[in-house]
Amino acid sequence: MLNFIITETYTEMSMLAAKRVAAALINKPDLVMAIPTGGTPVGMLAEMSRMAKNGDADFTKTFAFNIDEYIPLRNTDPQSYYYFLQQHLYQYANIPAENTFVPDVLAANLTAECARYEQTIVDHGDFDMTILGIGHDGHIGFNEPHATHSPVCHVINLNVDTIEANARFFARQEDVPQQAITLGMGTILRSKEIVLIANGKSKSSVIKQLHDCTRIDPQFPASFLLMHPNVTVICDREAASQLHI
């Protein structure tokens, strides 16, 4: 059963998610985290950065992993997801650069690179906390609706809806990468704690679908979260507007 927490505003959602991270850091300073990108986590990352600056949270022993990365964008490309985390969190939150991880999407052998990234996660004891967003079609990470899902880190061909949704971040839709490396569903589910955040009316339908979901459906990837014993969904009032709770 998923635990839903509804906040009145996006700001409250962001602060609550950041506080969950801070609380986990107190219990385990060398926290191993998987961190999302996109519009939804911007407020949470800003609050985490503020906490670090003000001494309310200490990230100096933290390990941070990208959930996914576009192929073939370099770390320094402003549209890459590593660059996003660098701009919104890493440069403020005193996480040592050697403690930040992202798949090498320029590797000659991407299959081998996926295996290496997966092994790096295993070598760190798997994730203590995974923070997720959710796509309008229920995708988590870049695990999109499909008949089957890889349990481990893998290359994914992005579907048309995802490419269109992400086109707002690029000058032209044809500039949006067609592929990415993403954590596998099993990789995510091995995390000790999962926090999913969502905001805005555009996410209200998928949040209702997730709330009402009672079985695993590979065409609705977020339904796999039902298999995990410790999932908290934090959403603002707009995202929860179709829920009767």
TrEMBL record:
CDD domains, A to Z: GlcN6P_deaminase (cd01399)
Top EC class for this record: hydrolase
GO cellular component: cytoplasm
InterPro entries: Glc/Gal-6P_isomerase, Glucosamine6P_isomerase, NagB/RpiA_transferase-like
Keywords assigned by UniProt, alphabetized: Hydrolase
GO molecular function: glucosamine-6-phosphate deaminase activity; identical protein binding
EC numbers for this chain: 3.5.99.6
Domain called Glucosamine/galactosamine-6-phosphate isomerase: residue spans: 12-226
Annotated Gene3D superfamilies: 3.40.50.1360
One annotated GO biological process: N-acetylglucosamine catabolic process
Domain of life: Bacteria
Listed name of the protein: Glucosamine-6-phosphate deaminase
Originating organism: Citrobacter freundii
Gene that specifies this protein: nagB
